[in-house]
Amino acid sequence: MLIDGFGRAVTGVRVSLTDRCNFDCIYCHNEGLGDTRGPMEPQDEEMSTDDVVQFLEVAEEFDVNAVKFTGGEPMLRDDLETIVRRTPDSMEVSLTTNGTFLPGRAEALLDAGLDRVNVSQDALDPDAFREVTQSGAYDDVIEGVLAAVDAGLTPVKLNMVVFDATAGYVPEMVEHVAENEGLQLQLIEYMPELAGRPDWAIDIDRVHGWLNEQADQVEHRTMHDRRRYWIDGGLVEVVDPVGNEDFCANCHRVRVTHNGYLKGCLNRNDDLKSMGEMTKPEIRTAFRDVVHDRVPYYGEYMIKDDDEWVINEEYIGA
Ligand SMILES: Nc1nc2c(ncn2[C@@H]2O[C@H](COP(=O)(O)OP(=O)(O)OP(=O)(O)O)[C@@H](O)[C@H]2O)c(=O)[nH]1
Ligand SMILES: C[S@@+](CC[C@H](N)C(=O)[O-])C[C@H]1O[C@@H](n2cnc3c(N)ncnc32)[C@H](O)[C@@H]1O
Ligand code: SF4
Ligand code: SF4
């Protein structure tokens, strides 16, 4: 197992299979890769099926026990089922998707070995949904969530980005997951670091305060020290990375970009390591290097100066 200089073992990888997407969500950080707009067709720069599998086999050698496929929209990859099928058996396999392609493919993904799925759904109202995603695919997403639950890709976690356009929908989303078996809710604090528009952010402590009042039970998850609230039988988890040193101190994942770079932190693009021609020796070297260099974003790469987060001088020009 590889452990970085801050005692953080790397136990999971997040593989971005493409930076293409059929949506254009107004808040999208695209896992730090830039704009999702552009051609929908497969791009030459994307890792091949074999490249992805080769990488996962090396990750397994380093005792990584979980992989998350993401993007862009990972279901735009026609070889997703093949990749899932060829993922080492020792790994938990999950997918984060906008859900539009789940109807018709959920069963095949389950058969291929997918364990569970997270589906982005920011509201239960088609108009609000259209405004946020700039797409009219609300019905497809609802159908996609049902297809995932029916196939048994559970728990299906609904990812809701909480910012000024969606905060008002939190109570009905909490009620929705309490009433529907197989669903959980992840309330994701809007991250302005890469997306800009800090004025859209809301005070996540107010969300915690409201959930605390409603909750029958509160738990802490080891990963990122995330808090989870049981409300009327439903589970609601808060993903609150912004300015959160505890979150970064408990970060155990390395990311892979669609074009074959390792990335130590979502918020950084100055730490990318190429995996070259994707041979196993090259992948092993890049993996060791990225873990060696990774540091907590908040608390180390960014430090507090007069109550403002500023880049630690050590990393300027690094
Ligand atoms: N800053 C930061 N944000 C993260 C991190 N992990 C997840 N997030 C945020 O949460 C979003 C949704 O994450 P998902 O891909 O659904 O997965 P997850 O919630 O991290 O993982 P599971 O609960 O295990 O499925 C990401 O796109 C980010 O916005 C992280 O390590 N750092
Ligand atoms: C980049 S998307 C990729 C996977 C897939 N296209 C989807 O939307 O689920 C992964 C997750 O990031 C979340 N996300 C995107 N931009 C964000 C931001 N600025 N702040 C917080 N979460 C964000 C999305 O809501 C989604 O749940
Ligand atoms: S669906 Fe996912 S990748 Fe596509 S724009 Fe929305 S958040 Fe970004
Ligand atoms: S170090 Fe912090 S900001 Fe970077 S990926 Fe990990 S939790 Fe996210």
Question: What can you see in these coordinates?
Answer:
There is one protein chain. With 318 residues, the chain is of the alpha/beta class. The chain is 29% helix and 21% strand. The strands form 2 sheets. It has a 12-stranded mixed β-sheet. A two-stranded antiparallel ribbon has the order 13-14. The longest helix has 14 residues, at 138-151. The two termini are 26 Å apart. The mean pLDDT is 94. One iron/sulfur cluster binds at residues 21, 23-25, 28, 30, 36, 71-73, 98, 120, 133. Pathway: Cofactor biosynthesis; molybdopterin biosynthesis.
* Unique ligands: guanosine-5'-triphosphate, S-adenosylmethionine, iron/sulfur cluster
Structural class: alpha/beta
Low-confidence stretches: none
Rg, rounded, reads 19 Å
C-alpha termini separation = 26 Å
Shape: globular
The proportion of strand residues reads 15-25%
What series of H and E elements makes up the topology? EHEHEHEHHEHEHHEEEHEEEHEE
Strand elements, count: 14
What's the pLDDT, averaged over the residues? 94
Number of helices: 10
Q: Major β-sheet, in short?
A: 12 strands, mixed
Strand arrangement, major sheet: 7-8-9-6-5-4-3-2-1-10-11-12
The helicity comes to: 25-40%
